[in-house]
Amino acid sequence: MQNSAEGEPLPDSGATPLLPRLERQRLHDTVVEHLRKFITEGVLKPGMKLNERELCETLGISRTPLREAFKVLAAENLIEISPNRGASVSRMTEAEIWETFELMAGLEAFAGELACERITPAELAQIKALHYAMLACRAQNDLSGYYSRNQEIHDRINAAARNGVLRQTYLSINRRLKALRFRSNQQTQKWDRAVQDHEAMIQALEARDGKRLAAILRQHLLEKREAVMQGSLAAATPAEGTNAPASAA
């Protein structure tokens, strides 16, 4: 029997060697993560057509792992694949942005309440360490470093809620909002306000004040939505229209 990937004979036991599979899975995960980061940080912008050759050269990979990664990102609604036009970065409508942030505000608020009941001292210490690292990034105007720590804080609060269904819903919805949340901190005033919100989050979490943390998280997400919507309206072309959803009025 031959190894279909390498053309080499397999061991007599008939078991497929684990190492090639693990290496392929690592490559797959790495490509997916790089593309997610490109989308989050605006290297690949909403509506942009994805050039397979250029991405393969940038990532140092062949087209097979790239196309496999495209399938994952399409399932996450981060990209759209058309049989005739290829792949492009998904673009959310204003109504989708409005409603998705509204849902995320509720998810994060609920997670905050549960986390205050269930978080361990070790988990709280890790979140506080991330908070201080985030503040250091802010002092250095390191937006990418700030954002990655910011998101990890939100992620760890969600994980501390210890609710599997909530967790999976949060992860799915948050993937669609990451790029928008990243861009919402690019103005100094909004960035500083986000830092203040995080200070308040840490205080509420330390006090195990679930109602307060829920209120802070909900308002934090709704303010992100306002910042994103303002940016969306400012960037809209006359052909695309500039009207916010009726509920925004």
UniProtKB/TrEMBL annotation:
HTH gntR-type domain residues are 25-92
- Stored InterPro entries: GntR_C, TF_FadR/GntR_C, Tscrpt_reg_HTH_GntR, WH-like_DNA-bd_sf, WH_DNA-bd_sf
Q: Which UniProt keywords apply?
A: DNA-binding, Transcription, Transcription regulation
Q: Which CDD domains match?
A: WHTH_GntR (cd07377)
Matches recorded under Pfam families:
FCD (PF07729), GntR (PF00392)
Q: Which GO terms describe its molecular function?
A: DNA binding; DNA-binding transcription factor activity
> Which SUPFAM superfamilies does the record associate with it?
GntR ligand-binding domain-like, Winged helix' DNA-binding domain
Q: Which stretches of sequence are listed as region Disordered?
A: 1-21
The reply on keyword DNA-binding is: yes
What PANTHER family does UniProt report for this protein, alphabetically?
TRANSCRIPTIONAL REGULATOR, GNTR FAMILY, TRANSCRIPTIONAL REGULATORY PROTEIN
Q: What is this protein called?
A: GntR family transcriptional regulator
